[in-house]
Amino acid sequence: MFKIIKNTIKLLLGNNLSNKIHTLKDILSQKIKRKVFYLKRKTKKYFFSQQSQYSVTVGMLAIRKKDYIDLAIDSINSLHYYNSNNKVILYIDNTLSTYFNKKSRYLDYPDHVKTSIVQDNISEPWQFTKMRVVLDLSHNGIPFVDADSIWHSDISEYFSSDKTTFLVKINKFSDHTDENRLISDILQKPIWGDLYHFNIGFIYIKPTIITDEFKSFCSNLMYSLLELRNNNVIPYTIFRTCEEMTLSIAAQLFDNDIITLKDTDGPGDTFLIESIYYGCQKGI
């Protein structure tokens, strides 16, 4: 209680009082929501536990920032709230293993969560590690979900391992001014303009698609985009979704049967899975 009061006073004594109050309201609102959901989870686990005959294994990634461990735990608990049989493989880097071990006591079903230490080359942007994890999981028939996602239903009722699946369509590349410039003018691939930029908050690529040719295509395009960014040809606002654009393009070039989990998405959209867009909000 003292810590909350201390932080509240510190917050309110700063500049821009109205902004500080608004921020405080958001923080308190999130704390209340988490507490309510905590009570719902515990009540269901101990008094209304039901075993589903179906289950799905999903992969997640938490690297470089402790916040992603906290987000992943919230996401995993929401996944298990709707089906405790679901399994999770959480990829973490060496720097976060101790922190995860400390925080893992907050998992509702720790036996259904496995960690895997990922080789994260910090000299490269984090997007490269994410893409490699997605490809590794898909190769093994496992979908990937972002750590900053909250489940509102059981994924096992919606997921099919027979189809390449993305979270949602964002736009056609030709319909986005900066992306169209990248595709048509810089990369000289105007035919890609009719392809969709998908959101990869959830992504599964059929294992039959993950060939050496597919992986080589993804790697080459990613390094091309990195070079363009390093040479200031494209802004970071475009580069930050490089793995998303790369996987979107590659999937459509190698597979003509692609579906999405949702028709729309965004904070507050609670159909099946809700994306918090933590990275976008923080500019990561």
Overall pLDDT metric: 88
**Gap from first CA to last CA:** 32 Å
Helix-strand category: alpha/beta
Biggest sheet features: 4 strands, mixed
Strand arrangement, major sheet: 4-7-6-8
- Count of individual beta strands: 9
Number of helices: 10
Order of helical and strand elements: HHEHEHEHEEEHEHHHEEH
Poorly predicted spans: none
How many domains? The number is: 2
Radius of gyration: 20 Å
- Give the CATH architecture of the largest domain: Alpha-Beta Complex
CATH class of the largest domain: Alpha Beta
The helix content is 40-55%
User: What best-fitting shape do the alpha-carbon axes yield?
Assistant: globular
CATH superfamily of the largest domain: Spore Coat Polysaccharide Biosynthesis Protein SpsA, Chain A
> In the CATH scheme, what's the topology name of the largest domain?
Spore Coat Polysaccharide Biosynthesis Protein SpsA, Chain A
Question: Which helices and strands appear, and what pairs or packs with what?
Answer:
Elements: H1 2-12, H2 17-47, E1 57-62, H3 66-82, E2 87-92, H4 97-103, E3 113-117, H5 126-139, E4 144-145, E5 149-151, E6 164-172, H6 177-186, E7 196-204, H7 212-230, H8 236-239, H9 242-254, E8 258-260, E9 273-275, H10 278-282
Parallel strand pairs: 1-2, 2-3, 6-8
Antiparallel strand pairs: 4-7, 5-9, 6-7
Helix pairs in contact: 5-9, 7-9
